[in-house]
Design a protein that fits this description.
- This protein is α/β, with parallel strands linked by helices.
- The chain is built from 17 helices and 11 strands.
- The chain has a domain of 127 residues.
- A 6-stranded parallel β-sheet has the order 3-2-1-4-5-6, sandwiched between helices. A 3-stranded antiparallel β-sheet has the order 9-10-11. The protein has a two-stranded antiparallel sheet with strand order 7-8.
- Helix 6 links the parallel strand 5 and strand 6.
- The chain is globular and about 60 Å long.
- The relative contact order is 0.14.
Length: 476
Amino acid sequence: MPPKPPKIVVLGAGSAIFGLGALARIIQNERLRGAELAMVDIDAESLETMHNVAEKMNEAWGAGMHITSTTDRLQALPGADFVIVSIQVGPRETVWEMDWQIPLRHGVRQPYAENGGPGAFSHTARNLPVILGIARDMERLCPDAWYLNLTNPLIRLSYAVHRYTKIKVLGLCHQLLWGYAMAATVLADRWAIPIPPDFHVHTDATNMPNFIPVAMAGMKHLDIKAAGINHFSWVYDIRDRETGEDLYPLLRERWLNGFRKDFEPLTREMFQIFGMMPTAGDSHMCEYLAYAHDPVTKPWEKYHLRLQSWDGNRQRRAERRALAAAIASGERSVDDLRDLHRFAILNEPVPEIVTALHFNERFYSQQLNIPNNGLIPNLPDEAIVEVPGVLSGMGIQGLAFPALPEGIAELCRRELTRSKIAVEAALHGDRDLSLQALLLDPMISDIDTARAILDDFLTEFAEYLPQFTHDKEPIA
């Protein structure tokens, strides 16, 4: 007898940024007809809107799902087969901008402040109690369920669930699309791919309408196998998807010899120096590097490193909320959401992963964040690494890769060690370990500066950092 349709719990379902795309793809998936979908968000008003949108999708697309919503995850988790988590503690753009502004007061100019740099520490510390709290609730209420984590910093939070609970965790990210977009740009004439003038792959919301068509063309024509760590993976193999031709020599020759000097220049430098193409694009890769913040050489000018546009993100969020409200009220057809790219929403492979694991339908995913266990032999076994792999009823089998070149491996190992210490510091509210984590960061070069940044983080984010409120003496 085949398994019954799964119960899927979505935490963060009220988000118009995440919820619209995730719910549309899940509800459209024919294999998930009849599934139970439990939507959870602490924002009751947004959750109600998204519930209405989900019900309209359910009816219009004949999904036959049983859909519920609640602000209390404890009501939704019992019996879950999959728990999809995309949450943020604090107002997303506001706290992210503070993650950048606070270190800047002390002379540390981060290039991005999300997954690396001192901002990643506060980002980790805010989200970790909730991320682990969800996993510990799952241990009681749905211990066999899969935890699909989409919350950044992905390495750190996925590692915390893996290290400190018994829950099966998979970290999901779509950053490899940036690798496809870059390679497609360099090789565009091979398939007559139209490239917008002055095209770049920065992650700003306003760039997504330009970015998505190029990335999708890359996916159509190329096959990339990359491995490393999240937002810092490296191309091992790149081929013409139709003919199987090895395109690495051509890509290397073109990009490093005469291609546009203003096109992802830091990526080009790393490609040339270390011999492998990074996949994440300059704006994310630079977070893990020591040479992206120097106030004398100003690498943000030299490499055209762009900050995240927080106001652009706020505008995108408002536009998505308005879209959700218009669909919920009937002013706009729910069928508009069948084509997510028209709204610059990227497709996440969540339904494919769910159906593969639940119904034993083999699915090859190009980007999985899972425990290493020897998949990349010169990275720590317990670390969360990013590799392609196959999902089925047996679970997840990541593809094993040859060792990374030692220079690249060392850059990855440093980030993984820093992540491990940051997680432990954030878990226990340990100021001493927190200072160590900051001093291991490549963007910190002064002990007093690190102390001052940490003090400001713990003061200004105090409402989001309950683990640091015990009576431990502060660092002298």
